Amino acid sequence: MDRSGGVRFGRPGSTGFGSAGFGGGPGGFTVTPWVKRLLIANAVVFLVSVGVGFEVIADLFAFSPSRLATRPWGMLTYMFVHQGLWHLLINLLFIFFFGPPLEARWGSDLFIKFYLVCGLGGVLLSFVFSGASIVGASAACYGIMLSFAMIWPNTPVYIWGLVPVRVKWLVIFLVLLSFASAIGPARDGVAHLAHLGGAVAGFLLVQSGWLPGSGRSDARGPGPGAGGRGRRRTPWRSALGRRGRSGRGPKAYTSGPGRRGRKSRPDAPAARGESPATRVIEAFEGRRAAKRAARESAELDRVDAVLDKISAQGINSLTAEERDLLDKVSRQTRAN
After folding, report:
1. How far is CA 212 from CA 9, 19, 99, 125, 257, in A?
2. Whether 200 and 297 share a structural domain
3. Res 273: pLDDT
4. What is this structure's pTM?
5. Is 157 helix (H, G, I), strand (E, B) or coil?
C-alpha cells in the first residue's frame, strides 16, 4: 500500500528537517482552532490504529480507487490515517508550523475548506494516474506548505535547527523531488502523486483569488497578523492622518492669551483688515475642523480594533458594520 506521506524526507539522520522560525511577532503564533483539531484528530486515529491494527483502519478508511463506489468516504478519511509514527509526526510538524498563520489570515472556515480541498487534489491525481491505495495527510500538508511559501516566500526555515533556508526554496525542492519520484522508476512506498495533487490544488486556490489576503505579504514572514498582536501604523491611519496636514480644509483658529506678542484689543480686527463677521467665521471653521479631527481619530481607532480582530479571528469574523467601516476608510484612502 502506497503511503501519502514524505516520511523519508525529514527523518532524523537523512535530511534532518528541524524547526521553523517564522518571525511571527512577539511571542510567535499560537495554535489556531482548526490546527489544534487536526493535530488531535490525526493523533487519536493513529492511537486507535495502533490498538486495533493498522490494516483494519486502512481497510475501512484509506482511499482506494478500485473501491471508490463502496468506500466513497475514503476520499476524506484517508487524510487522518497514517502508517507508522514518523509518517504521522512529519505531517503533524507541517500542520503545526504552516497552518496557524494561514488560519489566522483566512479565518477558520476557509482554512479547513482549503485543507480538505488540497487533500481531495491528492485523491484526484492518484485516481487518474495511479491505482494504488493512499493514506496520510501529506497532500493537504503540501497544499498549506506551498500556499505559505507563496504568501511569505522569504520566511526562514531551519534545517537541523541551524541552517536557515528560505521557505520558498524548501517548498520548490520538495515539489521537484515529488515530481521526479512520481515520473521515475522509484517504488519507495510513498504516494508522490498525492503530494503533487495537494500542491497543485493549493496553488490554484491561492491564485484564484478565492482566499482573502492571498497575495504576497511581508517577505520576512508572518507579522502580528499571524498570531502576534501589537499597535501598528496602518495604511488607513497613515493616509487619513495626512488630511490635516495637506492644506485642504480649514485650519484651526487660535486666539487668546496663549499667543505671545498679540494683545486682545477692541480695534485688533480692524487693524488687520478683518471684520467681526470674519472673526466669527474663522472661529466657527476652527471648531468644525477640531470636531472633524476628533471624529477621524475615533474612526481610526475603530479601524485598528477591526484589524486586530482580523488578526486574532480571521476576516470571516467581521460583522456587516465592520466590513462597511473598512470599505468606507478604503474609499477615503484612495481619495487622498
Report:
1. 32, 28, 15, 26, 54
2. no
3. 55
4. 0.61
5. strand
